[in-house]
From TrEMBL:
<feature type="compositionally biased region" description="Basic and acidic residues">
    <location>
        <begin position="301"/>
        <end position="316"/>
    </location>
</feature>
<keyword id="KW-0547">Nucleotide-binding</keyword>
<dbReference type="GO" id="GO:0016887">
    <property type="term" value="F:ATP hydrolysis activity"/>
</dbReference>
<protein>
    <submittedName>
        <fullName>ABC transporter ATP-binding protein</fullName>
    </submittedName>
</protein>
<keyword id="KW-0813">Transport</keyword>
<dbReference type="GO" id="GO:0005524">
    <property type="term" value="F:ATP binding"/>
</dbReference>
<dbReference type="InterPro" id="IPR050763">
    <property type="entry name" value="ABC_transporter_ATP-binding"/>
</dbReference>
<dbReference type="InterPro" id="IPR003593">
    <property type="entry name" value="AAA+_ATPase"/>
</dbReference>
<dbReference type="Pfam" id="PF00005">
    <property type="entry name" value="ABC_tran"/>
</dbReference>
<feature type="domain" description="ABC transporter">
    <location>
        <begin position="5"/>
        <end position="235"/>
    </location>
</feature>
<feature type="region of interest" description="Disordered">
    <location>
        <begin position="300"/>
        <end position="358"/>
    </location>
</feature>
<dbReference type="InterPro" id="IPR017871">
    <property type="entry name" value="ABC_transporter-like_CS"/>
</dbReference>
<comment type="similarity">
    <text>Belongs to the ABC transporter superfamily.</text>
</comment>
<feature type="compositionally biased region" description="Basic and acidic residues">
    <location>
        <begin position="349"/>
        <end position="358"/>
    </location>
</feature>
<keyword id="KW-0067">ATP-binding</keyword>
<dbReference type="InterPro" id="IPR003439">
    <property type="entry name" value="ABC_transporter-like_ATP-bd"/>
</dbReference>
<dbReference type="InterPro" id="IPR027417">
    <property type="entry name" value="P-loop_NTPase"/>
</dbReference>
């Protein structure tokens, strides 16, 4: 069985902007895979290439072995996408929006109805089935986006910041729904700015920056890349930095009565540090261990040193709005299916492309 996603040397240029710059990534079937990256890293562009909303300018991309361009329908039918934007037809009851969506992907009329009901039940808004999208609350809209992604019973569920701006309770509800789906075998690709979300849910995380992969690892492996801080509080201020001999120690600093020891795993060096301090005449009273968070590792791995960064990001932010809607302005709107989709899909993801490129 081919992997859920395999991309090699993937490139996308928007005029002068290199949104994807030789991205290599493999998402195994059945995994819960997180995609992290700072604003403008290329996450949405990557997703849009997979679902056929943006045409790549180089490299190779396939979904369950289907080339995203040469076998667009095969790739697209395997994917359920919950995009960042609420790109939903607002004039129909939500159950009809789901029927249309299922029908577009070849699901029969009778099955479409059943699937729509199941999807709405799963996300907890079945009682709202006759309501138009606009009349749903913000939280229900987020639930609906997930239902719409599920209605085709996809093998690969792509969630682009599914919990952005939702309250804690809904976030936990959505986590439960997607965790259940993953347990049932659905591969999940999740982009998020909530590091805690990636840490809790994902079995593997890819960090991308400037359109390239920085690293792929489990959340645990990533946090191990950072260093912890062990603080030892003494009975009196230290006059000088004690010499601590242990190859696991990366650095020692002193601040009054606090000695801070940086090490890959602070808890492992506690006995050795205390023993050495006591041998040098210090009296430790208390200790505190601060573990590196995935967030710190992430910031470290994606930190940009040059000062031009802020300016570059500021410019990015306007284009980002377009990116998330799947348009492709600088290329004159060369999206793969901006024009190619039938009316039955015009209420869906691809309609946005057409609208946005007007
Ligand atoms: N339609 C477009 N036209 C021109 N430039 C674009 C377009 N879409 C995206 N870009 C640029 O491509 C780069 C990658 O954008 P993309 O939206 O894919 O990043 P992202 O990682 O999804 O960001 P965010 O986390 O802010 O959603 C950015 O520099 C962005 O400005």
């Amino acid at each position: 069985m081919p992997p859920a996603i395999r991309v090699e040397g993937l490139e996308k240029e928007y005029g002068d902007v290199q949104a994807l710059d030789g991205l290599d990534l493999t998402v195994p079937e059945g995994s819960f895979f997180g995609l992290l990256g700072p604003n403008g890293a290329g996450k949405t562009t990557f997703i849009n290439v997979l679902v056929g909303l943006v045409r790549k300018t180089g490299g190779h991309a396939e979904v369950f072995g289907n080339d995203v361009e040469d076998d667009y329908q095969g790739a697209r039918d395997a994917i359920g996408l919950a995009p960042q934007e609420f790109n939903v037809d607002r004039f129909f009851p939500i159950k009809e929006v789901l029927h249309h969506k299922a029908g577009y992907h070849g699901v029969s009329e009778a099955d479409a109805e059943k699937r729509a009901a199941e999807a709405l039940k799963r996300v907890g808004i079945y009682d709202k089935r006759d309501v138009r999208f606009d009349w749903l609350s913000g939280g229900m809209k987020r639930r609906f986006m997930l239902a719409r992604a599920l209605v085709t019973d996809p093998d690969l569920l792509i969630l682009d910041e599914p919990t952005a701006g939702v309250d804690v309770e809904l976030r936990h509800d959505l986590w439960e729904v997607i965790t259940d789906l993953n347990d049932e075998g659905t591969t999940i690709l999740l982009t998020t700015h909530y590091i805690e979300e990636a840490e809790r849910l994902c079995d593997e995380v890819a960090i991308i920056d400037s359109g390239r992969k920085v690293t792929v690892a489990t959340p645990d492996e990533l946090t191990e890349k950072g260093s912890d801080t062990l603080t030892v509080y003494l009975d009196a201020p230290a006059d000088e930095t004690p010499a601590l001999d242990d190859e696991r120690i990366e650095g020692v600093t002193v601040e009054g009565d606090a000695i801070r020891v940086h090490a890959t795993s602070a808890s492992e060096v506690v006995p050795s540090v205390l023993r050495q301090l006591e041998a040098q005449g210090y009296t430790p009273l208390d200790i505190d261990i601060e573990r590196t968070s995935l967030e710190e590792v992430f910031v470290d791995l994606t930190r940009r040193d040059d000062e031009s960064t802020d300016g570059a990001r500021a410019e990015d932010s306007t284009a980002d709005d377009d990116a998330s809607a799947g348009t492709d302005e600088s290329n004159g709107g060369d999206d793969v299916n901006a024009d190619g989709d039938t009316a039955s899909e015009t209420s869906d993801d691809e309609r946005v492309t057409a609208e946005a490129s007007r």
